[in-house]
């Protein structure tokens, strides 16, 4: 998304995608010691909430001249719901996207989200577990191992539940 950072205070910009809802509400240039390090930083002031989990290297910014910067995140966040897996991540009023090395307010700034760690819920997946006697371990569990790339998934059930259908949910 591309916008004029100098106008954000008067005209906030909204980033809404895949359940995430972020408001870009201001932009400043910060000098040390009010930075994440020892260099000048552009600071994009934001609030809102994420449905999808994020990591701190998901974002980048490009200025009017085409120079690209990494973006780091700074500020308080909390989960809204009974836990982060079934609610949203709410950004505090003081949350910021920091852009180290940006010395001036650019005419246009493009915010780039490189990775979206999507969260899937209620996918109603079903895994058939037809264990045979050779699949039993010493605890009486029947199971199998499925491999998905680098992920090994061990699926097991107690022999007492044999013949019963069970719902199995995954967070990948």
User: Which secondary-structure class do the elements indicate?
Assistant: mainly beta
* Overall geometry: globular
Q: Kindly state the mean pLDDT as a whole number?
A: 76
The total count of helices amounts to 0
Distance between the termini: 27 Å
Low-confidence stretches: 131-142
- Helix content percent band: under 10%
**Helix and strand pattern:** EEEEEEEEEEEEE
Range of strand content: 35-45%
| Biggest sheet record | 7 strands, antiparallel
Alpha-carbon Rg, integer: 23 Å
- The tally of beta strands, per DSSP, is 13
Could you please describe the fold and organization of this structure?
The protein is mainly beta and 172 residues long. It has no helices and 13 strands. The strands form three sheets. Strands 2, 3, 4, 7, 8, 9 and 10 form a seven-stranded antiparallel beta sheet that branches. A hairpin with a 2-residue loop joins strand 2 and strand 3 (20-30). It is globular, with a radius of gyration of 23 Å. The two termini are 27 Å apart. The model is unreliable at 131-142 (pLDDT under 50).
SSE order and pairing:
Elements: E1 2-3, E2 13-17, E3 20-30, E4 41-50, E5 59-63, E6 68-70, E7 72-74, E8 77-80, E9 88-91, E10 96-100, E11 109-113, E12 141-148, E13 151-158
Antiparallel strand pairs: 1-11, 2-3, 3-4, 4-9, 4-10, 5-6, 5-11, 7-10, 8-9, 12-13
């Amino acid at each position: 998304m591309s916008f004029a950072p100098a106008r954000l205070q008067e005209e906030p910009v909204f980033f809404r995608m895949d359940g995430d809802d972020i408001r870009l509400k201001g932009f400043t240039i910060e000098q040390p010691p009010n930075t994440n390090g020892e260099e000048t930083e552009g600071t994009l002031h934001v609030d809102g909430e994420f449905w999808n989990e994020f990591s701190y290297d998901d974002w980048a910014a490009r200025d009017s001249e085409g120079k690209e910067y990494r973006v780091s995140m700074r500020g308080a966040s909390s989960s809204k719901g009974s836990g982060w897996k079934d609610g949203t991540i709410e950004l505090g009023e003081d949350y910021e996207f920091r852009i180290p090395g940006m010395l001036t307010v650019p005419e246009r700034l493009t915010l780039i989200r490189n990775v979206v760690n999507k969260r899937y819920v209620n996918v109603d997946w079903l895994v058939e577990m037809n264990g045979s006697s050779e699949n039993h371990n010493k605890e009486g569990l029947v199971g199998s191992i499925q491999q998905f790339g680098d992920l090994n998934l061990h699926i097991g059930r107690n022999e007492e539940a044999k013949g019963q259908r069970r719902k199995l949910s995954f967070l990948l």
